[in-house]
Amino acid sequence: MVAVAVGCLVAAVVSAAAPAGAQDPFEEPRRLMVDQQLRRRGIKQTELLQAMQVVPRHLFVPERVRPEAYVDEPLPLGPGEEALLQPYMTALMIELLQLDGTQKVLEVGTGTGYDAAVLSKLAREVYTIEINPERGAKARERLASLGFDNVHVRIGDGNEGWRDHAPFDAIILTAAPEEPPPKLVDQLKVDGRMVVAVGAGPFQQLTLLVKTPAGLKRHRIDPVRMSPMSTERE
Q1: Which domains does the chain have, with CATH numbers?
Q2: pLDDT mean values, one per 10 residues, the chain (234 residues)
Q3: 37 partner at 20 to 30 Å CA-CA among 69, 86, 90, 201?
Q4: How far is residue 116 from each of residues 36, 140, 191, 211, measured CA to CA in Å?
Q5: What is the pLDDT of residues 114-173, one digit of tens each?
Q6: Is residue 179 classed exposed, middle or buried when 0-12, 13-18 and 19+ CB atoms within 10 A define those classes?
C-alpha cells in the first residue's frame, strides 16, 4: 500500500514535469527495463519491481545521457564521476535486504540519489551518506524536489556511518571496501542485513551479512565490479 501511494506521487511529479497532455517518453523504456533486465534475471520482489517501474531514473542522470538511462549497464556520469550502477545491480542489492516498508535503512554512497529513491519506497526512513559535497548537495536537492520526503542526505565519510540514527535495520554500500567497515557493522541491528561488495582487486565479492547475537554470518552472492570506497582521509 505504501509503495503504491509513493509510486503515484512519483508518477505525478514526472507528469508535472512534462508538457500538458504529453506522456512520459521514458515510461516504455522503464517497463522494458523491469521486464527484460529484472524479472527475466530473477528479481522477484513485487514491491521492488513496482518501485523501479515508477522511479524516474532519467531524472537522476545528466540530461546529455538521459537516452541511455535505462540501458542494462553501468552509466558513466562524467569525467571523475563514479558510474551509476546498472539497474539489475541496484535491484539485486536491494532485494537482498528483504525490506517490507517498516525498516530504517542506511545507504553509503548517495551518488545521484537514484538508489535512495528506490529504497524510499520499500523502507520507512532512508539515511544516505555521500562523501562528495557537490554531488551530495545535488542529490539532496533532487530528492526533495521529486517528493522523496523520507530520504535524509548527509555529506561525510560513509565509513563512519550515521551514529545519531543508529541502529539500522539494513545497510547497503554502493562502493566497495576491502572489508565491511567496523563502525557500520556496529550500527547494524541484531538480525539486520548488510549488502556490500568486498575486495580490493578489480573484481569484488557481493556479500550479504546477517548480524546475529553470535556475530556476522556471511553469504557470498556474486562476483561484481564496483568503484572502491573512498574516505575523507584520502
Answers
A1: 2-224 (3.40.50.150)
A2: 36 41 84 98 98 97 94 85 90 98 98 97 98 96 98 97 98 96 98 96 94 96 91 56
A3: 201
A4: 22, 10, 22, 22
A5: 999 999 999 999 999 999 999 999 999 999 999 999 999 999 999 999 999 999 999 999
A6: exposed
Q: Give 94's contacts (C-beta < 8 A, 6+ positions apart).
A: 48, 115, 118, 119, 122, 172, 195
The span from the CA of 18 to the CA of 99, in Å, is 32
The three cell numbers of residue 169 are 535495520
> What's the pLDDT score for residue 81?
73
Can you give the pLDDT at residue 24?
Answer: 87
The angle that helices 46-54 and 87-96 make with each other, rounded to 10 degrees, is: 140
CA distance 48 to 46: 5
Distance in angstroms (rounded) separating the CA atoms of residues 39 and 34 = 6
Cell numbers at 42, concatenated: 530473477
The CA distances from residue 36 to 11, 44, 88, 95, in Å, are 21, 13, 10, 17
Residues in CB range of 132: below 8 A, 6 or more apart: 155
Nearest one of 50, 70, 72, 64 to 3, comparing CA atoms: 50
pLDDT of residue 22: 55
Chain centre to alpha carbon of residue 227: 15
